[in-house]
Amino acid sequence: MLGVAVNFGLVILGSLLGLLLKKGVSEGLNKAIMSAIGLCVMFVGIDGMLGYTEPIVIIISMVIGAAIGTLLKLEERLNSLGDEISNKFVKANGNGHFTEGFVTATLLFCIGAMAITGSVSAGLNGDNSILFTKSVIDFVSAIMLTVSLGIGVALAAVPVLLYEGALVLLASLLQSTLSAGATDALVCVGSIIILAIGINLTGMAKFKIANFLPAIILAPFAFYLIELITRG
After folding, report:
1. Domain encompassing residue 84
2. Are 119 and 110 in contact (CB under 8 A)?
3. How many domains does the chain contain in total?
4. What Cα–Cα distance (Å) separates residue 113 from each residue in 119, 169, 212, 232?
5. Predicted structure pTM score
6. Could you give the residue ranges of the DSSP H alpha helices within 126-213?
7. Measured between alpha carbons, how far is 81 from 177 in angstroms, rounded to an integer?
8. Which of 38, 50, 183, 215 is a good FRET partner for 99, with 20 to 30 A between their CA atoms?
9. pLDDT digits 0-9 by tens, 60-101
10. Which is nearest to 210 in space by CA: 97, 93, 139, 110?
């Protein structure tokens, strides 16, 4: 739970700094910082991929997972859900910046591949590196959002704590049912998705990240399938 606690704390800290900085952070500086973070995210993704020696498992997981995600339009549905929740919440509670800040930040911090892959990695093998990286991104994002939307952004730390904490607990419960090989496959696929997030942050490309998420679920099954075939 260390990674979740750090994420929680940095969202609050970023919000407080945002109140102090107000308009002191330029768009150019923000873009430069996010590009630097994107490169660091890419490093985390590459590091998680290194050492895995079953490319067929990864190919099966990623190709079929991307196909399923694209056919289900996960990226579009997720974006639409976020917009719908935001619009309804803000309308129901007035147009104040407090509510808008809370809803916008909650959706940004919770709905995304990094929250899922980071929490799963932390729950399965105690690796908090992805959540630590996400925490830094959320820290910078919280500063920028608070500058424009106010202290409501800080309240988004609570859903982050509950959401990521639940995912970590769920992953830790599943740990006993997965072999080491299946866990390694899942982590490798998650790391590839993290690499894609880093590329998006640098602006080099724009992957529809949510469409890749089914690959995380498929990875253990692909591992067991290949293991069954090779043993047979």
Report:
1. 2-231
2. no
3. 1
4. 10, 17, 9, 35
5. 0.77
6. 129-149, 157-174, 180-202
7. 32
8. 38
9. 999 999 999 999 998 888 777 767 766 766 555 555 567 777
10. 110
